[in-house]
Amino acid sequence: MSRLPDRPRRTVSRIVAPLAAALLALPLAACGSESEDSQDDGTSESGAFEPVTIEHAFGETEIDERPERVVTWGWGTADAALAIGVTPVAMEKLAYGANEEGFMPWQEEAFAESGDDKPTTLTPGESPPFEEILAAEPDLILANYSGITEADYEKLSKIADTVAYPDQPWATPWREVITTVGEALGESEKAEEVLADIDAEVAAAAEEHPEFEGKTIAAVAIDPSAFYVYRGADPRVEFLEDLGFELAPSVDELDTEESTFYYTISTEVVDELTSDVLLSYAANEDVATTIEKDPTYQAMAQFKEDRVATVVGEDVVSSVSPPTALSLTWGLDAFVDALVPAVQAAG
Predict the structure, then answer these.
(1) What span, in angstroms and rounded, lies between the C-alpha atoms of 79 and 324?
(2) Before 295, cis peptide (omega within 30)?
(3) pLDDT score of 128
(4) Is there a contact between 170 and 145 (Cβ–Cβ < 8 Å)?
(5) CA max distance for the chain
(6) Within a 10 A sphere around the Cβ of 19, how many other Cβ atoms?
(7) In angstroms, rounded to a whole number, what is the distance separating the alpha carbons of residues 181 and 183?
(8) Can you tell me the distance from the alpha carbon of 223 to that of 17, in angstroms, rounded to the nearest whole number?
(9) Which stretches within the chain are classed as H helix?
(10) What is the phi/psi pair of residue 341, to 5°?
(11) Cβ proximity of 50 and 35 under 8 Å
């Protein structure tokens, strides 16, 4: 699957979608140092640990003791652990929007705040790098937003207790990623606090911008050969609805049900995707300029009337693709700043 539309599938090329394999594909670590709320291994010490059993696509995993060395694989899981106060000993190296070390900016901020050593980064690929994970000596492997196969799971389980996704690969709701990580780490209350804090920040942004309320919106990713539209079930759209927007009826009217979270439409009918505001994701300024000047898209009323909000930058695009415990609030201001002038133009 391409990343343009979401974070499905492994490998940098898969994760980075067709939007030039970059847009919708947001990117998809070993020792921790002691901080105020963590042990030397980066695990939280907030009370007695009660054994938990977590059901997932490949069965269930029993966790009897508080994990001390946590490895994460996939997207968003490391962020959930960091937000809860646990620094993984190893995590997948990210690419799209990440720095040379393989970390996203919001992760760097979390490392700085905790004072922990950065995780060892794991080589990305179609399958987890089993030898690298083994070398990290984990007692828990969290892969609850990933694309691991049952065979991968069996191998990982021989290294340490492993939690896979609940049903389908690359489809775990971002909120569930956070709650599952909290449960596995014995920090369910902290996980709920993380979610409450995120909701509060988004709600505050919506309250500061009552002009968003009721405006219809369509979220798209555009590259030279394809026009991707995000469906209502996609977390990018849910985020916009939380800010007060309504999904434009045309999104459903043109829906081809190509996938669970996006579909493509021909450039010949893009003018039928009507909305008060069009939100466009662009990997960089060059891409944004190319889209803006393309005569095909100039046929759309939103472009003609300056009702297009363009979010630029791999890291910003990644922050909602899909959101994580750390990324959504990190990118919130950039989205609001881009949306305000487009909404004003919509009247």
Answers:
(1) 6
(2) no
(3) 98
(4) yes
(5) 63
(6) 28
(7) 5
(8) 10
(9) 11-15, 77-84, 105-114, 130-135, 150-159, 174-184, 188-208, 235-242, 249-253, 285-293, 295-298, 301-304, 314-318, 327-346
(10) -65, -35
(11) no
Q: Kindly give, in sequence order, each residue whose CB lies less than 8 Å from that of residue 260, ignoring residues fewer than 6 positions away.
A: 171, 231, 233
- Residue pair 170/8 in contact (Cβ under 8 Å)? The answer is yes
37 exposure class (CB count in 10 Å sphere: 0-12, 13-18, 19+): middle
Distance CA 145, CA 166 (A): 9
Distance CA 99, CA 222 (A): 24
Radius of gyration in angstroms for the set of CA atoms belonging to the chain, rounded to a whole number: 20
Amino acid identity, residue 149? T
Token duo for residue 190? 């902290």
Phi, psi angle pair for 116, to nearest 5°: -75, 155
HSE-CB at 320 with a 13 A cutoff on CA atoms is 30
Q: Partners of 54 in the beta sheet?
A: 61
pLDDT tens column, 86-128: 999 999 999 999 999 999 999 999 999 999 999 999 999 999 9
Cα separation values, 281 from 1, 40, 72, 96, 184, Å: 18, 40, 27, 14, 34
pTM of structure? 0.86
Torsion region of 137: left, alpha or beta (phi above 0 gives left; psi -120 to 50 gives alpha): left
Low-confidence ranges of the chain (pLDDT < 70): 1-47
Q: Which amino acid is at 203?
A: A
Q: Assess contact for 143 and 160: CB atoms under 8 A.
A: no
187-203 confidence digits (pLDDT tens)? 999 999 999 999 999 99
Closest CA to 317 of 190, 250, 222, 248: 222
